């Protein structure tokens, strides 16, 4: 219902067709999507249920998730933004509004849906202040509150928002209306504001406290409760003329409160605190939440059914808990490991294995729809994994750990590495031939599937972080010297009998070769805080630095051919190239968690793993979210219309027409002609299509989009203005 977020944070298109009726709507969702933890891994700030089964939750990085079965399953919705979303309000199953804060561009964010969240549309807030709370009394009338005393009002479903005078510059955190006219807002320094005329006038009420207030709930125009800092709880029975302090029985900060009638209410807050009253707050009883994490928001639809969302801020992971008995018991709705994952390997688009902390091994046979834990037999950290087919694989890790499976991970058998040095990476070219690398220049070689591992002379004591082979003989290892902050490249053309050393100015962490000549190494410039990409086209004889455009370390890299590659790293960074690294385009990962490994099996299907159990998946090469609408009538010619709106931020629509079945390609370029993204690259039947393109990861500027189909080529200009 309402929440506190810990961060505090053109034209008209005339189509040349006879009919304008929609026949088919196709949705191809999001670049990268969450597979673990389930339902997603971002912190959650607010939850709103309109029935015991249907509800939404919103959170950081533009997260919006929906459930239609009471939280058993949640589906991610595309918000079109990566900013923090602080609160959500629905009046029925279709009409809802979300508010948030774009700290980078200094904008109050408002998103609106009229179709249950299938699509979310950005609305103009008209403010540069962050928005923390929102409340609608019907589909049209709503109020949003935020930083520096901001109050906004709409009477037309958010088509326009009008600023109201609050009379304060204090941050306002929550708002609640009983009807279109009577409402209350609360905020910092004990601020309580009251209106009885829809916000035309707001009157300051005496709260009796200077503690921040984070949430407010009324059951009628007179009876209400506010909660806040270090267990603050205030109660009114006269519409706020007087506020009486109640004993919450806790020193934990309370972030949200939900009443279903005048007697029954629930408050949530820090350290997993849940408080319950059945007598209008005369007494509050503590309930066991089963967690010590921060609980940000609570929503009850009746006395029994409630949902709470929050976050483990130690690992920045969202949590969801549910009750069906008024809080007597609370059950976690989140699942999946939160152990760090450091390595991932797929043998085809469906079958893959991820490894990580405490001997964690996860296996999927359906492209990551489900990940099943496997018994590794060790608690040592596992850093790398390599499979040559669905059955035969090897994992390596700390203290010289090597594990082998020949049955797809049903059993893992330890192998003798004859070293206690940590092993960071392993690569097999076939069932028998494999190489592992690790600390202090360790290189181990096997030619019999790991029955025996033989040490090879690397000629270095630098830590080796990653290894890549293109056949049993030709391989490259990369690493770094921590003492002088430099890197190293080792190469062999005889299966490791000899290793030739090359120096690198920068520490190198990951390497991937598509063939004997074409390879990419990634790492970091720790002095200038830059992600490093090095490229070779002659088997490593020469390496050329490429611009990554990121300040985050790059750790994992995967190339499936000489052109198509993906790099991942700190802060959820993902970069993609389709031209061998000449240009790298940033992709929205939807997470701030560090990503440690990435694996693609073809140009479209890839998986990235990392911090706190993060598993992300793409089935379209990480391409931007695309929404297409096909019109009924077959056009007479190829057409590419001007995008709208233009200028735009962050999304725009592109309409194109195909007169007969054709291979269609639509790409986006920057002003220098560098290819940034492929929006369409497939055979399309005759029809007219509309693409909704999101450019949230790109800076303001002039861009071009080009349609190619058979001999037809046309390019148009568009402007991104943030």
Could you write a compact summary of the structure shown?
The chain has 722 residues and is an all-beta fold. It folds into 3 domains: 43-332, Methylamine Dehydrogenase, Chain H, CATH 2.130.10.10; 341-618, Methylamine Dehydrogenase, Chain H (7 Propeller), CATH 2.130.10.10; 626-720, Immunoglobulin-like, CATH 2.60.40.2550. The strands form 17 sheets. The protein has a 4-stranded antiparallel β-sheet with strand order 2-57-56-55, with no helix packed on it.
Commentary on this structure:
The chain has 722 residues and is mostly beta strands. It has 3 domains: 43-332, YVTN repeat-like/Quinoprotein amine dehydrogenase (Methylamine Dehydrogenase, Chain H), CATH 2.130.10; 341-618, 7 Propeller (Methylamine Dehydrogenase, Chain H), CATH 2.130.10.10; 626-720, Sandwich (Immunoglobulin-like). The protein is 0% helix and 48% strand. It starts with 21 loop residues before the first strand and ends with a strand. The relative contact order is 0.09. Mean pLDDT is 91; it is low at 1-30.
